[in-house]
Structures are given as structure tokens and as C-alpha cells.
Design brief:
Length: about 240
């Protein structure tokens, strides 16, 4: 499953966000936030204090507060890879660079532009920064250039190298993407009772405090087929 998640905010608020986020990290003596490392108690979250549930909860509450105070809108796009593989057998998606990251990344940009339009913000005023290192990055760049005439910026979200200059807001995007992927994985597990399932407390809190599309577009085979038809992707024979 591929999840692309991010936030929209002003330059001024992103600067305030970075200051507050770094203060929250300094408070617990870690250089950056990385959700998978946090969940797995891996360095820099390997100190015994991170085994204490109340300590972990307090830290996440602080991070959620930083996000809620400084962003205007959240975006989540979910693509089950099995759905993409099904439609790729019918249409030449891979050959036309319409790979999973290209699909989800472009739809995240589309939603950001829709939000700008709804809030009377000119498209030219927004810049897109994505975490570097994702598979199919070149395909995503291809479709951005084709659809909008630009290529997004790619930067690291964190680093253990003191010479690097990571983009701090990407750590908040990583937080939301991990939680969304975890929730979607749980919800699609056959043994899960959908009537009683509850989101993780921190994800629920995050969603409740940040404006977002409550439906979080999830790509099924039907809208992937529609996407192929819209862009005249050839059918396989």
C-alpha cells in the first residue's frame, strides 16, 4: 500500500512550525522525528524512557499540537498496490510512467490546487516539496511536468549527518502517512471487525485538529481505469 500525505500552510507558518517542532524535539533530546523508528524503539528512540507509554503519548501530543497550530489543511492519498497491478494488466500504465507514486503524488497536488481554488489562493503561490528517495520519483516528475509544467522539489526529512539540512515539515508528513497506512492496513485485514475498530488515539486526535477531506481518496480499480481513460493510456492487447 502506498500512502502520500502532506500539509498546506503559509511560509510564515512553516517557519513558526519549524521552530516549535525543533523545540519539541529538544525537549526530549532527539535530533528528529521518524515514525517507524519511534514505533520500533530504534535510535534515536532507543533510550529506556521511550518504553514508558505516558512519555510517548505526551511527546506525540506535543507534535500534534505543533501541527494543529501551524498548518491549514491536510492531504491523504491511499493506493493499494494490488489495485494498481490489476489495472496495469489492462492498461499500459507502467510504460506511460503512470506508476504508483506518480498516481498518488499527482493526486495530492490536485487536491492541494483544489483547496487553493476554494480559498481564493492563486496556484502560482504554492510550492510542492516531497520527501526524496521514493520509488518512481522520475515517473512522478514526468507527470508533474506534463500536467502542470513544473517538477516538485525533493528533500530529505531527516538525517544523522550533521552536514545535511533536512526539511523539518516532512517529518510531520511522515507521521500522518504512517498513521494512515497503519489504519488502512488494519481496516483491510480480514479478521478486523469494522463495527468495533477504532483508530489509534494519536491519529484520531490529529484528524480532529487539522482540516482535511474526511473521505481521503482511496484508489480502487474503477477510478484507476477512469484515470487511464482520461489520459488516453492505451489498453493492452
Amino acid at each position: 500500500m502506498l500512502v502520500v500525505a502532506g500539509y498546506v500552510s503559509t511560509v510564515q507558518d512553516w517557519k513558526a512550525f519549524e521552530n516549535e517542532w525543533n523545540e519539541a524535539l529538544e525537549k526530549v533530546k532527539v535530533p528528529y522525528f521518524h515514525m517507524k523508528k519511534f514505533i520500533d524503539y530504534r535510535k534515536p528512540f532507543d533510550n529506556p524512557k521511550w518504553r514508558r507509554e505516558e512519555y510517548r503519548k505526551s511527546f506525540l501530543d506535543d507534535l500534534i499540537g505543533v501541527i494543529a497550530r501551524n498548518v491549514d489543511y491536510g492531504i491523504i492519498k491511499i493506493l493499494p498496490i494490488a489495485n494498481w497491478e490489476t489495472v496495469n494488466k489492462e492498461y499500459c500504465m507502467k510504460e506511460e510512467h503512470l506508476t504508483p507514486f506518480a498516481v498518488s503524488g499527482c493526486m495530492a497536488i490536485t487536491e492541494a490546487y483544489d483547496w487553493c481554488k476554494a480559498n481564493n489562493i492563486p496556484q502560482r503561490h504554492i510550492r510542492f516539496i516531497f520527501e526524496d528517495g521514493d520509488e518512481d520519483k522520475g515517473d512522478f516528475m514526468h507527470w508533474c511536468k506534463k500536467c502542470w509544467g513544473f517538477t516538485p522539489i525533493f528533500e530529505p526529512k531527516n538525517s544523522d549527518k550533521p552536514t545535511d539540512n533536512p526539511i523539518v515539515p516532512l517529518q510531520a508528513c511522515d507521521f500522518m502517512a504512517w498513521e494512515a497506512r497503519r489504519a488502512e492496513t488494519d481496516l483491510t485485514a480480514p479478521e478486523v471487525n469494522l463495527d468495533t475498530y477504532e483508530l489509534r488515539e494519536c491519529f484520531n486526535l490529529l484528524l480532529s485538529r487539522v482540516s482535511h477531506d474526511k473521505y481521503h481518496q482511496k484508489w480502487d480499480v474503477n477510478n484507476l481505469r477512469q484515470l487511464c481513460e482520461k489520459h488516453s493510456i492505451q489498453k493492452r492487447v
